[in-house]
Amino acid sequence: MAVKSFNPTSPAVRGMTVADYSVITKKTPEKSLLTKKKKTGGRNSYGRITVRHIGGGNRTKLRNIDWKRDRVGINAEVKAIEYDPNRTAYLALIQYVDGVKSYILAPEGLTVGSVVCSGPEADILTGNVLPISNIPVGTVICCVEMNPGKGAQLVRTAGSSAQLMAKENGFAQIRLPSGEVRMIPEVCRAMIGAIGNAEHENIKLGKAGKTRHAGVRPSVRGVVMNPNDHPHGGGEGKSPIGLPGPVTPWGVPTLGKKTRNKKKQSNKYIVKARKA
Q: Given this model, what pLDDT does residue 1 score?
């Protein structure tokens, strides 16, 4: 995939870039795999805004993605590569030999006509899903389970991949995209390959309207507010926040403040922290 730029016919398109979508082979989604997406506008059941900066945006529908890949030993052919408005990665529409269709995340190199399979007997090929115990050390993987049978939870964004580093005592050490090395049970499953659409990180929005299309409303900096609206507010002219560190409108430390519980039960599975 390549990044497409435009002639500067307006201020909006001067710095804007988009994906060329050359790998997309089907423009309309599979109707049987769609679910209505409910919008909240950031409001709770009382109608009060509990999450700011949410609202508007284009109408989208959820694609029902098969995160579990539990149809073991049944081959499926890739019928199309599709765009998903709800995520950065592209989707692959696959059809099993018995006619059942489903969506999976499209890994890099998967094309229309490719055959994918899941199960312990599957080959080490892009798009196949195997238990980690059956995957050779050093293999690049994605869509990794954290709990057996729960479905893929890790490494699902565009261009991301993890690497299987070691296996011992029923656990595998996996290096995640953040740099964290984490122990995962060997009975959990993972997909071979890296998620496609790696050029997504190079795309420039170019105009504020693109974030509005995504359902993100404008954000106002605290330093330009009044003191009664934000702890950063007040002062004569342009002034610093006047605090040891940035805080939210309710005085809670933010922007770099570590929020992970030091007593969290799963901390024991982290071999190397992502910022070590």
A: 63
